[in-house]
Amino acid sequence: MDIRKHILDLAKKIKGKVILPESFDTRVLKAAQMLTKDGVASVILPAKDIREVERIASASNIDLNGIEIIKIDRNLLDEKKIKEFVDARSQKGVNVQDALNLLNEPVYFSMMYLKSRKCNACVVGAVYDTADVLRAAIHVIGTAEGIKLVSSYLLMIPPEEHFIAKDPVMFADCGVNPDPQALGLKDIAVSTVMNFKKLFPGRQANVAMLSFSTKGSAKNKILSKIIEATELTKNHFKGYADINIDGEIQFDASVIPSVGKRKARDSSVAGKANILVFPDLNSGNIGYKIAERYGSFQALGPIIQGLALPVSDLSRGSSADDIYLISAIMLLK
Known about the structure:
There is one protein chain. The chain is an alpha/beta fold. It has helices spanning about 5-15, 25-35, 50-60, 80-90, 95-100, 105-115, 130-140, 180-200, 225-235, 250-255, 255-265, 280-295, 320-330, and strands at about 15-20, 40-45, 70, 120-125, 150-155, 170, 205-210, 245-250, 275, 300-305, 310-315. It contains 13 helices and 11 strands. Helix 2 crosses helix 13, helix 6 (about 105-115) packs parallel to helix 7 and helix 8 crosses helix 9 (about 225-235). The mean pLDDT is about 95.
């Protein structure tokens, strides 16, 4: 599968609009140029000083033709949504003016622009750190219905002729939650399945709730949250023929058919997992970096999930091409 072409083709059909708050960064401006030129999406660049954005672009030979650059102005935002935000912040002890002042900042303004339904996605994090992005997203956007935990996934793209993986797989959560409990793991699994279905419509989702044990091969109290999360996730997707969930299950049993058949003969997931849910951030972060460095997978993300509207937190090491591709992913519905 040419995953890049697959993502871009899906995004082009949507004809969406993405806002990129970090309009002062040349990588972001280059990505905006690429998105516009290739017809992947319309782009909005919010700025406190439009001339400064134009100067930065000109100095780097970046063409802003066809890109909408807007001056940050609360009058562009939905008044009702502003009031809801201010009231919520007031309940947390933030005074009205301080709450309003937040909306003059690119990240908060862009989140509220999205909440005002003036665009389809917000992609940020090339400059701002994760804590700032998530704080703004949770305060302005909030979590998706039925989800309490914001998490992340990585789209892991195997190299050509990989001896196990032939198509991209998803790893979650490798970037946000240090030690989620059973309900949190359920939210992570549910959010990842929903994103898998956006990226790969019609494809079977096979979710492995990973552990050091397969089906009771070990006895330990830390397994209880994985077993409980598995049941919660199964109940959530009860009746979905195209979604299989199983756990607790070891990595090798999840992805290698011969091992899966030996360790979990009756499993609907063993040997064919394409969504791997890690029990904590330690294992998730270690796991994806091993796959990336030893296994030569391309790790795209981490991509934030669990929010009510599409917001992505980029890595601060993101290239223009990373921003370009993640912007396309965030537009998928």
